[in-house]
Design a protein that fits this description.
The chain is built from eight helices and five strands; from the N terminus they run αβββαααβαβααα. It is an alpha/beta fold. A hairpin with an 8-residue loop joins strand 1 and strand 2.
Length: about 200
C-alpha cells in the first residue's frame, strides 16, 4: 500500500477513505468505460472533435478524431493542438454512432469533470441530429474522487476541484511525455491517478 503524503492535514478522514474505496471499485470494474472528450469550446454550440474510451485495464475501446459541423476556433486549437486540417477527413459523429453505442451503452461511465464530458456527449449528438440513448448504469467523476483525497480547502466551501495535470503532480503520478488536452493522454492519466488512489492506505 502507498502512504499519502497529505494525511496529516485531512479535514475529513471518512470522506478520504470513501474515495479510496470508490477508486478501488472503479479500477476493478470490468463494465466501466473511462473516457475523455476534446471539443470545439465550452458553450452550448460546442461539439466533440476527439473522444477516447479505455477499459479498466487501460485497453483502448475507442480512440478517434471527430469531424465537427463547425470549424474549430483557433484559440481552441492552441490548447488542444487539434486543428481543422486534422479533422478534415475524420469520421463524423453520425458515422460513429454504432461504435459509440457499442462502447458506451449499459456501461459505468468515468470521466474527469464528468458533467462537462457527459454534456458534450449528448450535446454533440443533438447538434448532429442523432438520437442516442445509451442507457448507462452510472456516471462517476474522477475529479470528485481526487478532490476528496487531496482535501484542499475551498474558500467557498467544500474541497477545491483540481485540474488533471495538477492532480497528477500532487499525487506523484508520472506525467511522462503526456500531451495533456488530448483525449487519450488525459484518459490514460486519469486512469493512472485512480489506480494510484486505489493503492493508498486508509486512515483510521
Amino acid at each position: 500500500m502507498i502512504q499519502s503524503p497529505s494525511t496529516s492535514r485531512l479535514l475529513n478522514p471518512a470522506v478520504y477513505n470513501q474515495a479510496i474505496e470508490m477508486a478501488k471499485d472503479l479500477v476493478s470494474c470490468s463494465n466501466a468505460v473511462f473516457f475523455d472528450t476534446e471539443t470545439t469550446g465550452f458553450g452550448m454550440d460546442a461539439e466533440i472533435v476527439e473522444i477516447t474510451a479505455l477499459d479498466n485495464e487501460g485497453k483502448t475501446m475507442l480512440d478517434t478524431l471527430v469531424k465537427p459541423l463547425k470549424p474549430i476556433p483557433p484559440e481552441v486549437s492552441q490548447i488542444t493542438h487539434i486543428t481543422n486540417e486534422m479533422v478534415a477527413f475524420a469520421p463524423s459523429l453520425q458515422s460513429l454512432k454504432n461504435a459509440l453505442e457499442f462502447t458506451f451503452s449499459r456501461k459505468v461511465w468515468v470521466a474527469y469533470n464528468a458533467s462537462f464530458d457527459v454534456r458534450m456527449f449528448y450535446q454533440s449528438h443533438q447538434i448532429s441530429g442523432i438520437r442516442f440513448a445509451p442507457n448507462f448504469f452510472a456516471v462517476y467523476d474522477a475529479m470528485l474522487i481526487v478532490s476528496n483525497i487531496l482535501q484542499m480547502p475551498n474558500p467557498y466551501g467544500g474541497f477545491k476541484w483540481v485540474k488533471l495535470g495538477e492532480a497528477a503532480k500532487l499525487l506523484q503520478v508520472d506525467l511522462g511525455d503526456a500531451d495533456l488536452h488530448r483525449a487519450k493522454a488525459d484518459t490514460t492519466l486519469m486512469l493512472q491517478i485512480l489506480y494510484k488512489i486505489s493503492k493508498l492506505e486508509r486512515v483510521e
